[in-house]
Amino acid sequence: MQTGMHTDTERCVRAVRSKDARFDGWFFTAVLTTRVYCRPSCPVVPPKPENMVFHPSAAACQQAGFRACKRCRPDTSPGSPEWNQRADLVARAMRLIADGVVDREGVPGLAGRLGYSTRQVERQLLAELGAGPLALARAQRAQTARLLIETTALPMAQLAFAAGFASIRTFNDTVREVFALSPSELRTRAPKRQGTSTPGVLSLRLPFRTPLNPDNLFGHLAATAVPGVEEWRDGSYRRTLRLPYGHAIVALTPTPDHIACRLTLSDLRDLTVAISRCRRLLDLDADPVAIDDQLRTDPVLAPLVDKAPGRRVPRTVDEAEFAVRAVLGQQVSTAAARTHAARLVTAHGEPVEDPEGGLTHLFPAPEALAALDPESLAMPRSRRTTFTTLVRQLADGELHLGVESDWPRSRAQLLALPGFGPWTADVIAMRALGDPDAFLPTDLGIRRAAQELGLPSTPAALTARAAAWRPWRAYAVQYLWATDSHPINFLPV
Questions:
Q1: What whole-number distance in Å separates Cα of residue 432 and Cα of residue 314?
Q2: How confident is the model at residue 1 (pLDDT cuts 50, 70, 90)?
Q3: Measured CA distances, 335 to 277, 338, 354, 436, 487 (Å)
Q4: pLDDT in tens, 417-453
Q5: Cα–Cα distance for residue pair 75/78, rounded to 1 Å
Q6: What is the gyration radius of the CA atoms in the chain, in angstroms?
Q7: Considering Cα of 463, then 468, then 470, then 475, what sign does the dihedral take?
Q8: Helix axes 89-98 and 101-114, enclosed angle (nearest 10)
Q9: Annotated catalytic sites, by residue?
Q10: What mean pLDDT is reported for the chain?
Q11: Angstrom distance (rounded) from CA 29 to CA 363
Q12: Of 443, 444, 229, 476, whose CA–CA distance to 345 is shortest?
């Protein structure tokens, strides 16, 4: 079992006294005298140490009878970076809870996806986070409810079900308990709405830990964008999303202190999932200070980090989609990979309406791709076999790629497929599955950067040198790629 930062009282007190925003989401401070809980960077005068207790999750605070601070709004802090840098049961469970699995499938569905009994899952979550899966999902519903209350004009009854509550009464009771205000009072106290009254359209702010370098993050997404599914327009990355209850179109815009997010949802029940997937796409829950400090210990990487700190790993909103696109990109240019993907989108994607124009389809589901005629694929026969084997296994459920994937096991499954070498398996592990330590020593861009920087250029020697970068080798890849003039490294103009 992992031991969280909340158990180190002295370190937590120091973080609270210094109002260190870096630790927002790592732990929560519950104040015994006021019965509120706060994020470490709360602007109020810190309480006396003897009046502070620390919890690993908002759900644990709520279960202990504390309500959310009205000043620092701890429910809106970035998520703990722990869940995106670990592959154990608790981390995988937290990624699934963030993706709304408990609300849709219950605790048995969560346990089934993880391959454990409900009792085992509940015991481990309670031991590490101080709350079980139902309480964690409830805290997430409360956060979604607050978001909808403050950013939309939806009637409360409609809003309650959109946030995932089973009844209006449960919605009202939960909001009062968590925020010490009724839903109507929360709406009255909210700042002037930045949202819109257009049905299904929400404007949100996605927080992150600073620093964040948007260049390679948005540059990569824009340079590899599949026409019809993705585009860069007016300073925003836009794309379509396939979600449990419907589809969405999202526009993500980098700003100095947050990512502006505009979501157009066909079903508001998908809000929590859409936010979770956008955060994963942009790697917003990473701890850039810890990552960069580790990479700076290498004298070759240090100047690259100092020049442009805070690089994130551009990820995906759909793991199966990325795996298909990785195969399409084998041994071809970025432009050729986009062309192949665009043909599949036009022929097999589901049409959607974009009020702003530009986006036309959802990326084809594995089931649709498994039904196509292999002879229609304009690619070498060996890659055609790789493609058809992958989509068939994804469609049949023999291969499952998701937020809950066990990274080593999934990588082994991918390597067992025909035409899957280390590069394809590792790029999927890095960008689709979220493994922060995935490494690409055979990548042409990495080998070129290594040669220019005086690093070993053979895969074996470079892998040995990269051992010092663990567990953040995926971030080292971003810094090495950035030495090149490829469009993926630059924020589009």
A1: 9
A2: very low
A3: 26, 5, 24, 27, 11
A4: 999 999 999 999 999 999 999 999 999 999 999 999 9
A5: 9
A6: 23
A7: negative
A8: 150
A9: 38, 443
A10: 92
A11: 43
A12: 229
- How far apart CA 220 and CA 320 sit, in angstroms, is 19
CA distances from 231 to 88, 336, 458, 489 (A): 35, 17, 36, 16
Q: Given the DSSP bridges, would you call strands 36-38 and 67-68 parallel, antiparallel or unpaired?
A: parallel
* Look-up of token digits 């970076």: 81
Residue with tokens 């995932």: 164
Q: Which amino acid is at 251?
A: A
Q: What are the CA-CA distances from residue 485 to residues 22, 310, 489 (Å)?
A: 32, 19, 7
Section 64-89 average pLDDT = 86
Of 99-108, 191-200, 264-273, minimum mean pLDDT range: 191-200
The residue written with tokens 């989401």 in the block is: 25
The owner of tokens 């927080």 is: 207
The Cα diameter of the chain in Å comes to 71
Residue 194 has pLDDT above 80, yes or no: no
Give me the count of residues in the chain.
493
pLDDT digits (tens, 9 = 90+) for 236-281: 999 999 999 999 999 999 999 999 999 999 998 999 999 999 999 9
Q: What is the pTM of this model?
A: 0.91
pLDDT at 197: 55
Neighbours of 408 (CB within 10 A): 11
Q: 143: closest CA among 228, 201, 57, 250? A: 57
CA dihedral 159, 402, 319, 75 (to 10 degrees): 40
Alpha carbons 188 and 179: distance in angstroms, whole number: 14
In whole angstroms, what is the distance from residue 472 CA to residue 312 CA? Answer: 11
